[in-house]
Specification:
This is Plastid lipid-associated protein/fibrillin conserved domain-containing protein. The protein is of the alpha+beta class. It has two domains: 21-103, no CATH class; 105-270, Beta Barrel (Lipocalin). It is 35% helix and 28% strand. The protein contains seven helices and nine strands. It has helices at residues 21-31, 48-75, 80-100, 103-113, 129-135, 219-227, 233-239; strands at 118-125, 145-151, 163-171, 175-189, 194-206, 211-214, 244-251, 255-260, 265-270. An eight-stranded antiparallel barrel has the order 1-2-3-4-5-7-8-9, surrounded by five helices. Helix 2 runs antiparallel to helix 3. The radius of gyration is 19 Å and the shape is globular.
């Protein structure tokens, strides 16, 4: 199930190494922050200029990380380790930027779902932690056409009009082998800067819609875990009355990034 938010489908392929690897590595040194990035406290004596400089530095580092991910989304030829490093950097810094400016979270939702919905194609994923252990490796560039769409144009769950999510895996460009449809919610926690998408699927379509099957609550999580396309943790969440989720990192006019509940991190390219 391309519930795969962070989950891959074997077989998978790694990208060819970039010929200009030394230049890329130099670029990453400028982009990747330390593993344990900590907030810099602003004392009462700190000036507004110092605070502005810090914010500008974070935004510049975010832009630098995105440049690598833009290239990866277009070419699938960036070194996978470099892509992971850029994703981790973007994840850390985006939360800091959200804490400093909460309006960024709404901008991310708007870019992710847009007016009338936005479609995204999965480009790169490390896979869930469970999948990594089973395969003995990390999945990199995703070999099949796998898409995810979000539409937050309905008025919202409080009015009985849930926001819509669709996941699909295709044979070629047009034939949908499997497609899931359901609803999603979006939450933002200002204190942590975390933006989260929670979701569930209410129906599955097989073989380009030849079969259209309603799903009971929790069935999507079970199907995903059994097929290897979803995290087994989603079953546990469902048992507790909770939904599967993504910790969403970013979305703009070109790419989207997120970490799934299974621990994997992924990159999508906007296709419409």
């Amino acid at each position: 199930m391309i519930v795969l938010r962070d989950t891959p489908t074997p077989p998978f392929f790694t990208s060819e190494k970039s010929p200009a690897k030394e230049e890329i590595e130099k670029e990453v040194v400028a982009v990747v922050v330390e593993e344990k990035l900590e907030s810099v406290p602003v004392s009462a004596s700190s000036t507004a200029d110092e605070s502005t400089d810090e914010s500008n530095t974070i935004l510049q580092q975010i832009d630098d990380a995105k440049k690598i991910l833009y290239r990866a989304a277009e070419t699938k030829k960036e070194d996978p380790d470099i892509v992971v490093a850029a994703l981790l950097t973007l994840e850390k810094l985006s939360r800091k930027a959200n804490q400093a400016d909460p309006s960024r979270a709404e901008q991310t939702l708007s870019a992710l779902s847009g007016e009338g919905g936005v479609n995204w194609r999965l480009i790169f994923t490390t896979g869930t932690i469970d999948t990594q252990k089973k395969l003995g490796t990390k999945v990199n560039y995703f070999p099949l056409k796998a898409t995810q769409s979000f539409d937050s144009s309905p008025s919202g769950p409080e009015d009985g009009n849930p926001w819509l999510i669709t996941n699909g895996i295709f044979l070629g460009d047009e034939f949908a082998l499997v497609k899931f449809e359901g609803d999603f919610d979006w939450t933002f926690t200002p204190k942590s800067g975390l933006t989260k998408v929670t979701f569930d699927f209410s129906r599955i379509q097989l073989f380009n819609g030849l079969l259209d099957i309603p799903l009971k609550k929790g069935e999507a999580a079970s199907l995903g875990a059994k097929s290897g396309l979803g995290s087994e943790g989603n079953i546990k969440l469902n048992a507790k009355g909770k939904r599967a989720f993504f910790n969403w990192i970013s979305a703009d006019e070109k790419i989207a990034t997120a970490r799934g509940g299974g621990g994997g991190i992924a990159l999508w390219k906007r296709i419409s």
